[in-house]
Amino acid sequence: MNTDLRGIGMTSQRTRDRLVARLQERGIENQDVLTVIREMPRHLFVDEALASRAYEDTALPIGHGQTISQPYIVAKMTEILLEGGPREKVMEVGTGSGYQTAVLSKLVDRVFSVERISPLQNQARERFYQLKLNNIRLKHSDGNWGWEWYAPYDGIIVTCAPEQVPQELLRQLAPGGRLVIPVGGSAGQSLRVIDRVGDTFEETELDPVSFVPLLSGQI
User: Fold this and answer.
1) Whole-angstrom Cα distance, residue 180 to residue 157?
2) What gap in Å lies between CA 138 and CA 58, rounded to an integer?
3) pLDDT mean over 146-152
4) What distances in angstroms separate CA 131 from CA 13, 35, 41, 104, one per listed residue?
5) SS3 for 219?
6) In sequence order, what are the residues at sequence separation of 6 or more whose Cβ sits closer than 8 angstroms to the Cβ of residue 52?
7) Known catalytic residues?
8) What are the DSSP calls for 93-117, one per residue?
9) Is 32 helix (H, G, I), strand (E, B) or coil?
10) Is residue 99 over pLDDT 90?
11) Which stretches within the chain are classed as H helix?
12) Which of 25, 113, 112 is nearest to 71 (CA)?
């Protein structure tokens, strides 16, 4: 493995281990999730100027008014998604830097990720190629519409916040499937978990969160 992937100094394995220890202190218990975050080179998913901060438990800017989510949120949403059994086919709304996508790709069979900002998607595609992540499919599209062609999905994870849950995403969730999504506007957001039980949807509201908004259209 080359130095770029392994990391040196503030991106070294020791720094990653400290991050995982912090995540455990904050309550992340899924060992598979923790292992993937320990091994995933997050510094490749941020601008080189920010690489020294890649293993801080904080969100960082990635351009175009978007951010890479803090590792705790990535770990928490992934852990929640995987509860209750394996999720073979997962859709992600909001590829962004590709970090959440890459983490998912190590834990589920197939990931289908939608992104509305073309330059971000192109950068993410290059990172997946560098990391030899071959079970990810990407689509340049408005995330409100999901990706109907490959529906239904065992799991859907949304990395930007709509003011209300898009009905199209609920329609693309398989029976027994789970949607993890931040919901809310300027007055505040909360993380929601929606499980599809037959033709009904059971919603649970979790912690307050802060995500960039889910916007319409493509760039």
Assistant:
1) 5
2) 26
3) 94
4) 17, 16, 9, 13
5) coil
6) 9, 10, 11
7) 69
8) E--TTSHHHHHHHTTSSEEEEEES-
9) helix
10) yes
11) 3-6, 13-25, 31-39, 71-82, 99-105, 118-130, 167-171
12) 25
